[in-house]
Amino acid sequence: MELIALLVFLATIAFVIISHHEKSLIALLGVIVMIILSPSYTFVDAFRSVDWNVIVILLGMWMISGYLSKSGFPEYVVYLLSKRFRSYGPLVISIALLAGFITVFVDNVLVILLLGGLAAQIAMASKRDPLLPVMIIGLSANYMGTALLLGDLPPQMLHSIAGAEFLDFIWFRGAPSSLPLLAISFIATLAIFYPLWLRSPRDRGHSIGGTMMRPPDIERISGWVSIAGFAIFMGLASIRPMLGVELGAIAISVAIMIATILETARLLGKQRIPAFEEILRDLEWRVILFYIALFMLVGGLKAGGVIHEVSKMISGYIGEELLLSYSMVYWLVAILSSVVEHDAIVLFMIKTLQELGTASGADPWPHYWATVWAGTLGSNATIAGAPALYLALVIAEKNRGKKASWREWMRITVPFTITSLAILYIISLPIIPSYIE
């Protein structure tokens, strides 16, 4: 069964990468094939292997994000930036910073949809190729998703599987953790590439403020209520261990509370507030199905003994010398995540490291952090590793009116990825020993 489960998993991931068909459908088909070919892995086993806490966290946060995005608040912030930074380079880099730090709280796909189109408009108004600014927005949005529990799947898996709490992403075992380290490396990476990509002599004295001089129409009630919802969620998430409830329960409860308040306001005549049905319709159900299938596929690997065998294979390399093993995991995951969908790599590695920690007694936390950080940053290299980048590429191609060759976009993504990985690796090395108990 080990070989069957592994072959089905690898074939499914390969088809997800190379096929033009819907990825969630391919992944679900892979689950069915795995169940049929593995008599000891049943549909009930597959259902139980799904981390429903993570799925509910995603649903809750996407519902809150949906209200915020439809309020017009993000566009209004970009409008304010365009009033402050009237030159092309500073404006693009400010939107990139905004994209990165919004993604700490909001799903990266939603951020790219919101800000990628605006970046393309600014580029076209400045008679520039929109490929570079839109891809920078995509890279930035994908970058900071692991900074806290809210922005991407890997930190949510780290919470649900390994037990990382909300505050652990800020300060972990007496040392800075994901949020400060990623923020420093993100700003440093943008600072390196700003003069290389965006600073131009023709920006001097050339204002593009007129491209966004008309302030966008915003719906204040849904905007402020959703912002308050994010604040309430973060407050409750930070004390979740004392509350004794699952993070998914907190996320969906806050989302339902926000929806109830805003639906009541709609009934009282505030018709500009988006309807709850509209929020549900716009949820990324295909992504939800893909993540469910991913959990089921990895569950099949665990049931087939693949994860146990892999953990035994790497046990001789992990735990002997911390910095060496940390480096090995970090760069291995980074390389794999550049060519394989990074959520699959991160989930497989977290499960493997958990199995290894249970069997050997070694503390897996330094390697957990290596996995989620390198998986996220490494995926920025290609559209295969980070599907969110594919969306950025589509937006850029639509606005420029022609396809971008792989050489064109990889000249942007690969140097950015290597630089960001190197910076984070260097600043994390002195801190990693603090993560051992």
End-to-end separation in angstroms reads: 37 Å
* Biggest sheet descriptor: 2 strands, antiparallel
Classify the beta-strand content into a percent band: under 5%
Rg: 22 Å
Please bin the fraction of helical residues: over 70%
Number of helices: 21
H/E series: HHHHHHHHHEEHHHHHHHHHHHH
Ranges where pLDDT stays below 50 over 5 or more residues in a row are none
Give the structural class.
mainly alpha
Q: Globular, elongated, flat, extended or rod-shaped: what is the shape? A: globular
Overall pLDDT confidence: 86
The strand order across the widest sheet is 1-2
Strand tally, please? 2
Overall number of domains: 1
Notable characteristics:
1% strand, mainly alpha, 437 residues
Structure write-up:
By secondary structure, the protein is an all-alpha fold. It has one domain (2-435). Helices cover 71% and strands 1% of the residues. The chain contains 21 helices and 2 strands. It has helices at 2-18, 23-37, 43-49, 52-71, 73-84, 88-102, 108-125, 131-143, 153-162, 178-198, 220-238, 240-243, 247-267, 276-281, 285-303, 306-314, 322-337, 342-360, 365-378, 387-400, 406-428; strands at 171-172, 175-176. Strands 1-2 form a two-stranded antiparallel sheet. α1 (2-18) packs antiparallel against α15. The relative contact order is 0.15. The model has no long low-confidence stretch (mean pLDDT 86).
Short description:
This protein is mainly α and 437 residues long. It has 21 helices and two strands. It has one domain (2-435).
